[in-house]
Amino acid sequence: MTSFIAVLYIIAFALFIYGLMGLTGPRTAVRGNAIAAVGMVIAVVATLLTPGMSNWLLIALGVALGAVVGVPAARKVKMTAMPQMVALFNGVGGGAVALIAWVEFRTSDGYAHEPKHVAIASLFAAIVGSISFWGSNVAFGKLQEILPGKPITLGKLQQPVNAVLLLAALVLGVVIAVGGDAELLMIGLLVAAAVLGVMVVLPIGGADMPVVISLLNALTGLSAAAMGLALDNTALIVAGMIVGASGSILTNLMAKAMNRSIPAIVAGGFGGTTAVSSGTGEAKPVRSTSAADTAIQMAYAGKVVVVPGYGMAVAQAQHAVREMAQLLEGKGITVDYAIHPVAGRMPGHMNVLLAEADVPYERLKEMDEINSEFAQTDVALVIGANDVTNPAAETDPGSPIYGMPILKVNHSRSVIVLKRGMSSGFAGIDNALFYDPKTSMLFGDAKASVGEIVEELKSL
Question: Which one of the listed residues 109, 387, 436, 445 is annotated catalytic?
Answer without folding.
Answer: 387
